[in-house]
C-alpha cells in the first residue's frame, strides 16, 4: 500500500503492527461482507458467528475427543515413520553400495501419492485407527527417509577423514561425526513428516470415516452446520500451526550449537 | 577394475534391484490365493485391459485436465501475487500471517468447504487443487523476491531500468530456483488433491475408479488403479525435474534446490 516510497519517510503504521493490521482487516471483511449481504451468509457466515461456535465447542468433550483422535493417529504415524526411516536412512546412507542399489527403487516409490493406497488400507485395516496410522506412517516415512539420506551423505569428508586418522572405529565415527552432522536434516525431515502425517490423518478421517477432526468437518457440512464446519477447519489450521511451531522451537533448542540454525524456512 | 567397468557395474546394480523386487513380487504372488493380494500377472493383465486404452478417455483424461487446470491457475496466481507483494518489504510482512495460516490448514480439511460453496462438479476440483497449490508457490516467490541481493536491486534502480523490466528480468529470474522448489511441492499436492477430491465426490476420474473398485471388491482393478496413480506420480516428478533443469540451467545452485 505505502509502497517503495515508504522506506524513505517514517511510515504511519509501524512495521511490527503490520501483521496484526492485515489479520484485523481480513477478519473485519469476513464479518461485514456477509452482514451487509455482499456474500451469501449461508456459505460464509460472519466471522463472529464462527468464533462464537468455536468458543462453545471448546467447552464440549466431542470437540476435544475429535482433536485427540486426530492427534493419536498423527503421533502413531509419525512415530512409526521415524522408527523406520531414521535407522534405515542412516544405514543405507552410510554404505554407498547399498545406496546405489536402492536409489532407483526409492526414487520410484517416493513420488507415489499415499492417498492412492486409501482403498488398500480400507481393505486390509478397515475403517478405524489402523488405516489412518498406516497411511500417515507410509506418507511421512518417505519425507523423513529422504532427508536422513541427504543428511548422512552430506557429512564433511574432512571431518570423517580426521576422525578416521585419529583412530575412531566405524561405530564411533557414526556416533560422533555422522549423526551430529545429520541431525539438522533429521530435524527438518521430522517437521515435514509431522505436517504430512497430520494431512494424511485428516484425509483418512474425511474419506474413510475414521473418528477425528476430518470426519467431524464432513459431518458438520452434511448436517448443514456451516458455522461448526468453519470452526473445525479453523481448528485444524491452528493445530497445524501449533505442531509446526513446536517442531521449530524444539529444533532451535536441540540445534542451538549448529551453525546452520538461521531459522530458514 | 577400470573406471569404466565400475560405472557399468554401478548402473547394473541400480537397475537390477528394482527388477529383482518386481520379480520377487511376481514369484511371491504367483500362487497367491489371498483375495487382497492377487498375483502380479493378474494385476498387470487387468492394468492392460483397463488402462490401455479403455478408460483413458473416460477417467484418465478428465483427471489430468482437472489437475492441470488447477495447477496452472495456482502457478500463475502464486507467481503473480508473490511478485507484486514481494516488491515491498512491508506488504510482505502484512501478508505473511494470512498466507502462513492458510497454508497450515491441512488441505483435505478444505474439501468440505469447497463442496459446500461450489458443489461437487469439476470446478470444485479445479478450485480445491488451485487453492491448495497456490500457497507453497506464493510463499516461495515471496521469499525468493525478498532474498534478491539488495545491491542488485539498488543497482538496477540506479541504472534507471524500468520497474517492469526490473520485476520480469531481475526479480523473477533471481527468485526462480525458489519458485521452482515451491512448484515442486505443489505438484505432488495437486496429484493428491486430484485423487482425494475424486474419491469424495465424483462420477469419474482415477480416484473415483480406485475407490469404486475397492467398494465393489474388484481387487485387481483396484491394484491396477493404484499402480497407475504411482506411475503418473513418478512421471510428473520426472518431467518436472527435466523442465526445472532446462529453465534453471543458468543457475549453479539449481541442483541443490531440486533436492528441496
Largest Cβ-defined interface: A-B, 63 and 61 residues
What's the CATH class of the largest domain in chain A, please? Answer: Mainly Alpha
Number of helices of chain B: 11
Task: Give the overall average pLDDT of chain A.
Answer: 86
Which descriptor suits the 3D outline of chain B?
flat
CATH-defined fold name of chain B: MetI-like fold
Through-space gap between termini of chain B: 35 Å
The CATH architecture name of the largest domain in chain A reads Orthogonal Bundle
Describe the protein's topology.
The complex is a heterodimer of chains A (265) and B (260).
Chain A: H1 18-35, H2 47-57, H3 61-94, H4 96-109, H5 118-125, H6 129-153, H7 157-165, H8 170-207, H9 213-222, H10 226-254
Chain B: H1 3-30, H2 40-51, H3 56-86, H4 89-104, H5 111-118, H6 122-146, H7 150-158, H8 163-200, H9 206-215, H10 219-247, H11 254-259
Helix pairs in contact in B: 2-10, 3-6, 3-8, 4-6, 5-6, 6-8, 7-8, 8-9, 8-10, 9-10
How would you describe this structure in keywords?
heterodimer, A: 265 residues, mainly alpha, MetI-like fold, 2 domains, disordered N terminus, B: 260 residues, 11 helices
Question: Can you describe what's shown?
Answer:
The complex is a heterodimer of chains A (265) and B (260). Chain A is mainly alpha-helical. Chain A is built from 10 helices and no strands. In chain A, helix 3 (61-94) packs across helix 4, helix 6 (129-153) runs antiparallel to helix 8 and helix 8 runs parallel beside helix 9. The two termini of chain A are 26 Å apart. The relative contact order of chain A is 0.12. In chain B, helix 4 (89-104) crosses helix 6. Chain B has helices at residues 3-30, 40-51, 56-86, 89-104, 111-118, 122-146, 150-158, 163-200, 206-215, 219-247, 254-259. Chain B is mainly alpha-helical. Chain B is 82% helix and 0% strand. Chain B has a single domain (38-259), classed as MetI-like (MetI-like fold, Orthogonal Bundle). The interface between A and B is large, with 63 and 61 residues.
